[in-house]
TrEMBL record, chains A, B, C, D:
The keyword Transferase applies. Keywords: Polyamine biosynthesis, Transferase. This is thermospermine synthase. SUPFAM superfamilies: S-adenosyl-L-methionine-dependent methyltransferases (SSF53335). It holds the Pfam family Spermine_synt_N. GO terms for molecular function: thermospermine synthase activity. NCBIfam families: MFS_SpdSyn (NF037959). Gene3D superfamilies: Spermidine synthase, tetramerisation domain, Vaccinia Virus protein VP39.
Length: 327, 327, 327, 327
């Protein structure tokens, strides 16, 4: 993201943005300027210049994405799923209005079509206009952007249509509409049906540090495992989120070889990603080994998790500091 | 101050400006937008839109003046001194770059000339441009604005030149240049000399609540009392300063009748202030009685105060949340 | 309050207690130690050692009373009403479990009986035990402490029983039980009925600074004025409350002479208060003139106030940083 | 750590402890009670009960260790070094007064002697008394605790004395004494000399997230690599430190096989650690693979790092939220 105009505070430590990570834990970062602010039918949309994280995108005052580390988040969300698919051509993104997820998907030379469904046109227009790194993404001829409810749109697609489906949605928070997209019903009846043979689904899965990983990360894993023959959980620390973050990747038809070994992943990056490994800041074979080699605490929780999320037995998270683009 | 353009946060309670009132006491108010920001040779100058206090002017991140209550502060600073003088024509303002002090002075029909000396041209230009209520003040033909050190400029004036001298300066903080303007030397050698017969001097005198009034309010009173035959201390709560504020008014030749009774003050307001009492929001005879009728705690401290401030025995304040325009 | 034992943090600026004055304004003060903490059926009761205000009593985390300035609050609440009554013998306190209100009442030599009704036995016991300044108060033979609902108890008293009734209750906050005790119905049907001829009622009336005084201070004044022939409003800055505070004093049968002049008040203090003026830290004749001589902004609001508070048209305050002892 | 007595706040979100992670980034966690507090010649020592992290040990107000995740930190610090040594008998700990490092070391059945040198007797006594999990550690006959400067004590040991040396010291902060223990001189002249053949040195190395890892983590790695033939860097997220943390493990005589593969590490844990893998909460073979498989961003920084820390060219860190036990 490029430097933009706006009245800017020179002095650090004057203005603070406060995130409530939990009701007993807060994260405060200094703000230098308010670059842009709009209001949509769904949420307030803001771009701020901060001290520790550079430009940050806020929805309803919550950090969604920070210049300093959004590549780490989005590379983890996107590349493992596409690299584990033998030849991904059609990709569906639930949410993703910020554009960064599509940006990473479009780095894959095999991709012919990306359908991205976000409910908030204001967010999409705002990010197209103000996030310079994503400007080309919105102009890419392979991208079809639909402003609508992601679940409804996915439901209307032909069965077996997509090689990869990506869940870039808000966490399941109480009272929010997203919780349905983290249920066995959604995974079984919609996601699995719309995946082509060999298809891969990946979803962001909330905080995954040694203290918070049982909130939704392990239940989502368990839920996917009740639907898909193989699920790979992984996690990585994202500084601006003040915690590790988790993802779960599920294979429609199983995958003996998942997770890929380091050398294989590196080879696929070179072959498939435009500009090869130079295009990726964080992810490569060794990083992949690192984020999938889970520690004992998290593995034990995954093994012990019994909660399959359904419409009638959902689970909610405190809901701060999480992705909320589109639903 | 009129609404101005700028990216604005809709949601309350996201961005907080933190003032350190004391090292163990903080005042946080929400900020909606950063309207304007500049940097001078002396300080950062900022105008913010806040939740509780409307637009606020900050110097180096410290609140100087707030749309919500600056009239209370400036009416208390200016009108008592001018109303206690029989016929004020020439007024000198030490500091005051914000323009609000001059604005109140110029409401007095008798005033023919105001010399305002502020060290920071950027502050003066900034306030002339951005504080709509003060725009006319800077254009008033009776105002002479000099960008310089107030002490040096006052020293160079002819003796007996001014009917009223107003100290609208930063508090005496350690390491700051202003402490000299709160000393017996300054009052004796410069202020008293430059006052015409019957002249009145008034100075802001720092926080004056029941807990903080001995920091500088009572020492300034004692110091003035060592130079002038009659000194009237008074105080009023200013919400955005998070405390009561104090002023001391000194008479070159004594004044049997000071402080004026309510009815007398009201009469003078009607006779002398353009548009009469309608021009003043806070001050009138009864308000004047209220702010000069000090409680037992403060009176006892005033009586017991021994500290005469001199160049060699100054006293400093924590220095947050105080007036810092010009010196 | 005397120093008490407890693990204490030596370093300032580590632990902060946060009060939400308004939803866009916060007050943070450093805490050195947690001296005592209990839980009642109604609220959490805590005594903390703070940096700026010494020991403070908290109910549900909100500051009720601070060692540094509670005398200012309680002298303003109690002495004007008793001093304006010709010969107060019987006093009823609604709330007041902290004991400080009764402590001030009992300084009046004429007082023969004080009935204090607070709903929370834990608060009363806690304060008797831990607030050293109030220990003797709870042992005073003239004090009858009843643990119950103040409204119900007052209703059950004989008509014309009390010379002075004091409302030392929580502010009217939404969802709280206290709002009924700030209505025309309560004042008309209960308070006025229980006052003896010549009786005086006084109630704390919420924040009263130039910005906040219309929240409940002026409506309470208007409501009392619809019931009593004469009402005297007054206000004083209380540092630990981060604002001026207001009170309204009402006379059952009118009072030509209220408010008393300074000299009269001083005379009555000497004659009636045990140990005379030495017993009072803040209040005397001149202080009384100061706090009753209201400024133009507040007077204008009082004159323009139309809202009579009734059970069907109450008004609520944000409800932080206010007295909540007993209801 | 077991529940201890002390006045405790029931309500969450009242008292906040504020850590300055960077000057533009703060971490606030709620505090329920102050369990114990002492003052030593070197620092304030405090044990608090917090909302998100359970009991936490603070030195000079900075979090050193939290009940919720201290095992993660200390298992990462201790076990890799001991498990990579063929048969560790003698271990030296620089700092470590909290006792947790020694506790982990003493789980190794091969260990015959642990010399722990911490400068602050008060910290050691405090932790022995108040950290229940470490009480037995301080009584273990194999532990020799010396209160002194760690560098001076290590220097006085016989050359080749120790199989493993552990640096559990404060980060190199400006003005602090510890920076000398992060220099080439210390590693070359003292640490390497005191290691027995085949000896292993490990040191905590500051924050190591994708944003902060170049502060001291990569310079320490580069410095060790200028002295030792093989150095293994690794990192793990520690929630209470609000970042990933880094360690560097160095081999006196090189080690073809470091880092060990998962199966080998698991085998050694079973064979050498008392109670086997059951004794460890976080660490095992797969966790070890995860924390040593560094991502591209960190690897690139390690490769590009040129700064060898010496007495004349040290590097400092902001110094908050870091280990400061002993120096």
């Amino acid at each position: 993201m490029k430097e933009e105009k706006g009245a800017s505070l020179m002095g650090a430590k004057r203005l603070w943005l406060e995130e409530e990570i939990q009701d007993d834990l807060r994260w405060l970062y200094s703000v230098k300027s308010i670059l842009h602010a709009e209001v949509s039918d769904f949420q307030d949309v803001e771009l701020l210049e901060t001290g520790p994280f550079g430009k940050v995108l806020l929805l309803d005052g919550k950090l969604q994405s920070a210049e300093a580390d959004e590549r780490v988040y989005h590379e983890c969300l996107v590349h493992p799923a596409l690299l584990h698919h033998p030849n991904p051509k059609k990709v569906f993104i639930c949410g993703g209005g910020e554009g960064s997820t599509a940006r990473e998907v479009l780095k894959h030379k095999s991709v012919e079509k990306v359908v991205m469904v976000d409910i908030d046109k204001v967010v999409c227009d705002f990010c197209e206009k103000h996030l310079e790194d994503n400007a080309d993404t919105f102009k890419d001829a392979r991208l079809e952007l639909i402003i609508d409810d992601a679940k409804a749109q996915l439901e209307n697609q032909r069965d077996g249509e997509f090689d990869v489906i990506i869940g870039d949605l808000a966490d399941p928070v109480f009272g929010g509409p997203c919780y349905q997209l983290y249920t066995r019903e959604f995974y079984e009846n919609i996601v699995k049906a719309k995946l082509a043979p060999g298809g891969v689904f990946v979803t962001q899965s909330g905080p995954a540090g040694v203290l918070a990983h049982t909130e939704v990360f392990t239940p989502i894993n368990r839920t996917l495992a009740s639907v898909f023959p193989r699920v790979v959980p992984y996690l990585q620390h994202i500084p601006s989120f003040a915690d590790c973050w988790g993802w779960n990747m599920a294979f429609k038809d199983g995958s003996e070889q998942a997770p890929l070994e380091a050398a294989q992943l590196d080879k696929r990056i070179e072959a498939r990603v435009a500009e090869g490994s130079g295009a990726l800041a964080f992810m490569d074979g060794l990083a992949w080994v690192g984020i999938t080699s889970l520690n004992k605490i998290v593995r034990k929780s995954l093994e012990g998790e019994k909660h399959v999320l359904t419409i009638d037995s959902p689970k909610f998270i405190h809901g701060q500091g999480v992705k909320q683009v589109g639903f």
